[in-house]
Amino acid sequence: MSWAPHVTVATVVERNGRFLFVYEEAEGRRVYNQPAGHLEPNESLTDAAVRETLEETRWQVRPTALLGIGLYRAPANGVTYLRHTFAAEAVEEHPQRPLDEGIIEPRWLTRDELLARESEWRSPMVLQAVDDFLDGKRYPLELLRSYQ
Predict the structure, then answer these.
(1) Domain range holding 17?
(2) DSSP for 81-119?
(3) Is residue 148 situated within a structural domain?
């Protein structure tokens, strides 16, 4: 039996002390997550982060740094995710753009507002990504290579 983790991306977008989250339906629950999703064929990790953020929040972003890479096995479905989390700047909102299926709405929350909703986090990675950002963790995007 072959096994491979699902390669995913996520973005942490901060503006005026608030962070961009998606409020979505996942595994039968309403949860908070960073804009995030799966890498598609022939796509770079940074391009996937930009695409997923736009599809889920209507915000065009520019990745500025890598915050971290994490491995997570989701207890709800047993799937292992290899998540690449980026810091990104909000560039422009496209309010008329439709949201991806399952997305209820994008929401800007402070860290404290996120903490008050702990039972609604999609995973522990949600707070960890915010804390990595606030702790100043930034790794150059040049660390990532694509040989396509």
Answers:
(1) 6-142
(2) EEEEEEEEEEEEE-TTSPPPTTEEEEEEE-HHHHHTTGG
(3) no
